[in-house]
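Pasting as-is:
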Amino acid sequence: MERLSRNRKTGSDVGKDELLELLRSIIKQVRDKRGLTRQELLGLYGEESLRIPLSVLQNENLGPLECIVKFLKEEKNLAFHEIASLLKRDARSIWTSYSQAAKKAKQKFSSRQLAGSISIDASIFADRKLSILEHVVIEMRDNLRMPVKEIAGELGRKPGTIWATYHNAGRKIRRGR
């Protein structure tokens, strides 16, 4: 399995490790010359967009932004500037959110907590017209067609909170904010 291809010039075998090192070098050159982020490079590859499991938002001690930043940093190993670029926020506010989240919740998300959870595309949070929670509720209610009670259960919030968030977001959208 180690032998993957033959070097055309020398006729020798090129191992998996050598190919990975060559690929890393090419990616670094493209990233440096074009100033692309990790997410933009993955987009060039055609990989599926970055998805966030909604179960990460169930933490009662953390705000929605803190939950998402903590997930992206610890589970997806993204740098603060990559998270900031993805969420269209200042890198300093991302660092602050992560720092506060790390103090409040020292443990990483459990694989059991992440498995089987509904997930949403992280790119929806780039639109700053709505809050993180408003984006999540709109996505679940309008696109996933989930009832308010089910959304509340999935997010660990009260149905009244979800209903108010949904209607406030709708008002913002209608006003064009």
